[in-house]
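To: structure desk
From: M.T.
Subject: fold request, one chain
Message: Could you run this one when you get a chance? Sequence is below, nothing fancy, just the single chain.
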Amino acid sequence: MPIYPILILLLLAGLVMELYPSSRSQESIKITQSSAQTLPDFAVITDIEARKLAFVDFMLPLITTQNAELTQLRQALIDLELNQLTPKQRAYWANIGNDYQEPFERHADLVQWRQAMLIKVDVIPPSLALSQAAKESGWGMSRFAQEGNNLFGQWCFSQGCGLVPAARPAGQHHEVRVFESPQAAVAAYMHNLNSAPFYQDFRQHRAQIRQLKQQTQLGAASYLSGYELAQGLVAYSIRGDAYIADLQGIIRFNQWVSYDQIINEFAVN
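Reply: Done. Structure tokens follow.
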């Protein structure tokens, strides 16, 4: 399995600081040195721009790490010798398929199953992940982010599974999910986009861009754009199109499209 794209993705996580102006405040630099297992208290940074930079500094390595894991799993799928699977390998991949809501039994053969899986197992553009994290967590300062590491507004539906929203309407039973770490929240968010039926349009559009890139070899014309792919997430919020406009506005205003261009140079086809 080629490891160079994966290593480069991980290295990008360590190069994030170089993408920002050298005038970043000492408050921002100090807070972003926190452990990835603990969400910093971003509210202590009083300067808004410094706070935003600290949030990106903290989040982007987590996003890059998770995308590297997805890249590794995707490459393993591509390299898989389907006609030579041992019983142990078959059981392993059956579990992976079930986890992505793509069981073997749904397909005529494993070739079709792999094609369906490759639509689901793929990277999430960093600009999109950043914009949703910023929007859903109030730039990391919301109660649910600070108390439960919930950076993407994800719900759960069994009593005691998370934090109860103060403004939850009468008769509703959802809670806001609690995660053991910010990295776990990023992993769950990406898995949600890659597996839940609500985001099929998002995944199909991403796959079409992949196919265009392979056919034309024009990376600049067909890279995975968070700004563009945001259009497939109408179901993420009851605000629908207005929510998509918010995400695209955040990406555009903060000029985050460059993160997508960087990661696309190394993500597998």
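Reply (cont.): The first helix runs from residue 4 to 14. Let me know if you need anything else for the meeting.
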